[in-house]
Amino acid sequence: MTNLPPTPTVAVAILNWNGVHHLETYLPSVVAHSPEAEVVVIDNGSTDQSVAWLEANYPTVRVVQLEENLGFAGGYNAGLAQIEADIYVLLNSDVRVTPGWIPPVLSMMASGYAACAPKLRNDSDPDLLEYAGAAGGYMDRDGFMFCAGRIFEVFETDAGQYDTDREVFWASGAALFVRADAWHAVGGLDVDFFAHMEEIDLCWRLKNRGHRVGACGHSTVFHLGGGTLQKLNPFKTYLNFRNNLFLLFKNHHRAWWPGLLLRRMLLDGIAALKFLTEGNADLFRAVFRAHMAFYRAFFPTWAKRRSEQRAISAGLHAGPLQPHNYAGWYRRSILWDYFAKRRVTFDELRQGAMQPPTAPRS
Asked: Which CATH fold would you assign to the domain 10-223?
């Protein structure tokens, strides 16, 4: 990874699929508050009036038109292949940005980060940190994701407690800044994820190569969330459970990974039974389908795992970065801490169990 130029070029890329209502609401803030960047809409095969609306109302905004809906991962891969910049910003179409939101993140990235995200607050309830990323993402020993400012269904009020820049395990794909050279070096997003957790997979692959991922506390955006798949939607449940298994199997290269995978699958089974006892048979079936999909994809995912290991090994011999950066990994169970110990905020967690930040590297 080369050093960033003093004034890097930035492309804010908004992926859109039949979301003209989001463009009408949120694009004006992006255009008004992003003078440092080129704003590009990647249209993912929309059949509504999105493209016509853009041409009529924002003729200076570049539109990259894809012929079909390739999902979040495929849409960004295809769209960013047609965009040149030093920094890509993957911005959801339902994000309202604020004045001066870009420079603090660029400043943080210049200090040695391959990917970063601003702080995300809830556009529907602006005092609260938002589900998709809050103030930076972490992962526990069983592969469960949580955020500073959001653990399961507890959303903290943003009172400035996270107004610092920190190294994290993953950064939200709702407003993800990523160096273009790092993006291309790891091959972008994994299209087999289709949607959900693909940005966590990207961050983990970057970290496995020794890169740092950050949460910028000096920049804030507001995310509506739930614009594509609503909470407890069976398809979203299916993607989340399936993709979490993909994520762990593909990227966890420590010696105890088989035990981790088995424990996680058992915990998934408990969750499925809980859905069933609560009368959510559709969600029970979604978890079952997710595991069946993982079994069917076992050998292709194993091939990806081996490919990642070879790439990491090659990078170890070719560059200055040390592989397998686990900063932001929580060595305890977030399930136990939250449900049994009632530690419901980030500050209440056992901070000594958090893998510490890494030293900056060139």
From this structure: Spore Coat Polysaccharide Biosynthesis Protein SpsA; Chain A (3.90.550)
